[in-house]
Amino acid sequence: MQVAITSRHGSIKPEFREYITRKSEKLVRYLHQVSEIDVTLEFEGDRVTVEMLVEIEGYHSIVAQVEGEDAGATFDRTLHKMEQQVHRYKEKLRDHRRDKSVSEIARSSVSEQDDSASDEG
């Protein structure tokens, strides 16, 4: 799994870059299908925008973006937002209430209606 860190209009200290990498890699604990994580920090005056993009194998990308004044706190909020989205995606995968697809449910209800109509006639 690869963590790519990009900085626009500013620079990141090596310690902070290491912190971002270490914290971002923990997303794999929640979901093993994570193939790539891209973190972009954009500095505009005294504002920082942190965008995190997580690539999931066999799925699409999940994106979280937060704007703030402190780069560290903004990254932490972005990571928290991403953790929630990954958790929500994982819950969708484990949703046990849907054993059948919607089309299978529709077909079975139509065939039940046909059976009941033929029993009456």
Output the CATH class name.
Alpha Beta
Mean pLDDT: 81
In spatial order, strands of the major sheet run 1-2-3-4
CATH superfamily: Ribosome hibernation promotion factor-like
Terminal-residue CA separation = 63 Å
Radius of gyration from the CA trace?
22 Å
Reconstruct the topology from this structure.
Blueprint: E1 2-8, H1 14-24, H2 27-30, E2 34-44, E3 47-56, E4 61-68, H3 71-93, H4 102-120
Parallel strand pairs: 1-2
Antiparallel strand pairs: 2-3, 3-4
In short:
With 121 residues, the protein is an alpha+beta fold. The chain has a single domain (2-120), classed as Double Stranded RNA Binding Domain (2-Layer Sandwich). The chain has helices at residues 14-24, 27-30, 71-93, 102-120; strands at 2-8, 34-44, 47-56, 61-68.
Please explain how this structure is put together.
The protein is built from four helices and four strands. The chain has helices spanning 14-24, 27-30, 71-93, 102-120; strands spanning 2-8, 34-44, 47-56, 61-68. A four-stranded mixed beta sheet has the order 1-2-3-4, covered by helices on one side.
Task: Give me some keywords for this one.
Double Stranded RNA Binding Domain; 4-stranded mixed beta sheet; alpha+beta; single chain; 121 residues
